[in-house]
Amino acid sequence: MSRITSMFSTTAMLLALTAAAWGQETSKPIEPGLRQVTLANRSPQGQLSQLLLKLQIKFKGKPQLYQIDKERFDLYVPKGWRADKPAPMIVWISDTEDGSPPQAWREALDRAGVLWLGARQAGSDRPRETRLGLALDAAHNAGRLFGADLRYITIAGQGGGAVEALALALHFPEIFSSALAVGNAGYHRDLSSPDKPGDPNAALPAAFIEPEPLRLNRVMSRSMITLVGRPESRAKKVFDLGFHADGFVHATFIAQEGDAALLDAGTFAKALETLSPPKD
Fold first, then answer.
1. What is this structure's pTM?
2. Which of 93, 161, 205, 217 has its Cβ near the most Cβ atoms within 10 Å?
């Protein structure tokens, strides 16, 4: 086979694989925007045994299993996305049944060139082990199916999803380079205010177990951790008494503007900047 023939064969194969992954014909261009997708493979780290080992989840009743090919995910592709250039990705843990980015946030995703993948029907009414497993599944498939840069996968969430995002960021730094917690937060040890020592009303109990020392040290020195909330919020307390007090090098708190339940576009854009990978 000649070199030119080999090059054409390789190019055709790549185009076919890309088209198959997106469920489109090779003649149709991949368009930016929002769509629903399914995944084929479970993450080894998301298996129930691994979650038990790492996070020591306490079950309410019988552990719930799921079939990955029956689950649906919301995928947002930013404008200007190129199949031949890996892009950073946000894996979202929703607090509702919708896994897509709010409309107001999409312009910031477009400007930053960030992919978004969030499980549907994975709100706080589903078991914790399912929500964590689906987020790990999303990250596991992100590079092969959607062209994500596996060096820059952010785990993010809002409300209860924010707590789960921080748990995954601290326990799986080899998968998630950064975390974004919106409106809520949790920590791996009990936190109490120095102004009110011993006051149970001022204490925040640990939301998840402490990671292994090597993993914790890696997160403290390398991972981007951004918490967003109002000045009086739980997120601010967790940042002050936990991430900041313990010396996480790249931890940031961003004050949410306004009283709306949904994070405004400007504040989301600021948060996105703190998680951005270095420019080429």
1. 0.85
2. 93
